[in-house]
């Protein structure tokens, strides 16, 4: 893993270059055609794309409840217990995110307020392909259910040997209402616009490949989306008290996700940097997904050596990583220096996979530097806010002049007259 010794200014430029996500115009055009086809041809288009891209054209898209029940009943007991633990912790964390509306009646004759309402129907995209992610399903569905979403439906690519039983079991545990066997950009189009078999939703949640991410971006506006997720990222800030073997393992835990994943270590110790680099090299040799991880390490990963702790955080705030580990002596004292990160892991025993599976905070996080302005998925993503206002005539009279003045400044005479129609100052 390459080690970089540069001044802070040059390191920030390097980080910003590696963060940039370029639009793939060919992918954009392909996805646009798929979405149009699904809008026009519905289920027929879905069957065509499933046969083409996934090699499976299911007779019916909706999975029978009996198949889901059977997967849960026959799941390996250790896997079931792990999923149940994850559900408990995810639920206990996200229950604390629930909010309520408010009523303000502090001014005479004025009633103002805000009510919170859950979305009616949400669609979850659960990737298939090279890996199954029951943990992502729990992270998506449970906050939606806690928020009070009426119907949570799931789409996932069909598999020749059937959908992974752990994914089906997680869906049952999380209370998913229906599962549809369809993946890719065509699944996103189906969720956004609806087909004969799949109902349209209000919001689409969940990660996927570049075609899924592009489709989510293109249907935004027709429906809401959680985010346009980029490749996985891990940033680690460490001093010479950290274990280089553990740091290397943590870096590779994200590098194995995706060839475009970003593993980054920032330290003030040249000795630690070299030891971590050596450990990454040796651990890659025995990692099952070594080809994927090696490309991520070579093309997107690096170790930066800086002069002081403050510079570590300054640089990492520029990275704005999806996951941030703080492996320093007494890591909690540095929380105030963290400005941009999706989720933070404090100390040597808070390894990043802890957050992926059972700790409770959501693992659907902002990527590609968007932690500068975005948050982890939460209950708040599944509710909408509606404000309400009530004025008495006397209360409106107190503020009528200000309203009409501003309306006429903006050239909106009809606005002003709507207020004046409540009083004797209005003339036809």
Proportion of β residues?
A: 15-25%
Q: How much helical structure, as a percent, in the residues?
A: 40-55%
DSSP E strands, number: 14
Q: Give the distance, in angstroms, between the N- and C-terminal Cα atoms.
A: 78 Å
Task: Enumerate the spans where pLDDT stays under 50 for 5 or more consecutive residues.
Answer: none
CATH homologous superfamily assignment of the largest domain: Nitrogenase molybdenum iron protein domain
Number of domains: 2
Function: Catalyzes the sequential NAD-dependent oxidations of L-histidinol to L-histidinaldehyde and then to L-histidine.
Pathway: Amino-acid biosynthesis; L-histidine biosynthesis; L-histidine from 5-phospho-alpha-D-ribose 1-diphosphate: step 9/9
Keywords: Amino-acid biosynthesis, Coiled coil, Histidine biosynthesis, Metal-binding, NAD, Oxidoreductase, Zinc
Binding site for substrate: 232, 254, 257, 323, 356, 410, 415
Q: What attributes characterize this protein structure?
A:
428 residues; 2 domains; alpha/beta; five-stranded parallel β-sheet; Rossmann fold; six-stranded parallel β-sheet; globular
């Amino acid at each position: 893993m390459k080690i970089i010794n540069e001044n802070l200014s040059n390191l920030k430029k390097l980080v910003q270059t590696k963060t940039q996500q370029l639009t793939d115009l060919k992918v954009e055009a392909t996805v646009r055609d798929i979405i149009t086809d699904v809008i026009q041809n519905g289920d027929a288009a879905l069957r065509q794309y499933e046969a083409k891209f996934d090699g499976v054209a299911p007779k019916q898209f909706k999975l029978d409840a009996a198949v889901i029940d059977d997967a849960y009943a026959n799941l390996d007991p250790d896997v079931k217990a792990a999923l149940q633990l994850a559900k408990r912790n995810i639920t206990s964390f996200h229950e604390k995110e629930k909010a309520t509306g408010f009523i303000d009646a502090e001014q005479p004759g004025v009633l103002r307020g805000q009510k919170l309402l859950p979305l009616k129907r949400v669609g979850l995209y659960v990737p298939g392909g090279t890996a199954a992610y029951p943990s992502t399903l729990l992270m998506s569905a449970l906050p939606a259910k806690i928020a009070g979403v009426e119907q949570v439906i799931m789409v996932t690519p069909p598999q020749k040997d059937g959908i992974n039983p752990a994914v089906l079991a997680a869906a049952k545990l999380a209370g998913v209402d229906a599962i549809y066997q369809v993946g890719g950009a065509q699944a996103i189009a189906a969720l956004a616009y609806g087909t004969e078999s799949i109902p349209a939703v209000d919001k689409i949640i969940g990660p996927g490949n570049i075609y899924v991410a592009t489709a989510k971006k293109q249907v935004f506006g027709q429906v809401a989306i959680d985010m346009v997720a980029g490749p996985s990222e891990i940033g680690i800030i460490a001093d010479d008290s950290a274990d280089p073997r553990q740091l290397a393992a943590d870096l590779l835990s994200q590098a194995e996700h995706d060839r475009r994943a970003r593993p980054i270590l920032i330290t003030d110790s040249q000795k630690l940097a070299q030891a971590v680099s050596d450990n990454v090299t040796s651990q890659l040799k025995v990692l099952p997904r070594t080809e994927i991880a090696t490309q991520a390490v070579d093309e997107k990963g690096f170790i930066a050596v800086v002069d002081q702790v403050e510079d570590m955080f300054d640089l990492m705030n520029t990275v704005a990583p999806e996951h941030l580990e703080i492996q320093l002596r007494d890591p909690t004292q540095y929380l105030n220096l963290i400005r941009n990160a999706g989720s933070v892991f404090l100390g040597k025993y808070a390894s990043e996979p802890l957050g992926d599976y059972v700790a409770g905070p959501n693992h659907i996080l902002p990527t590609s530097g968007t932690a500068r302005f975005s948050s982890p998925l939460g209950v708040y993503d599944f509710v909408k806010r509606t404000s309400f206002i009530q004025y008495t005539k006397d209360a409106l009279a107190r503020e009528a002049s200000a309203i009409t003045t501003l309306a006429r400044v903006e050239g909106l005479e009809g606005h002003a007259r709507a207020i004046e129609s409540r009083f004797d100052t209005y003339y036809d």
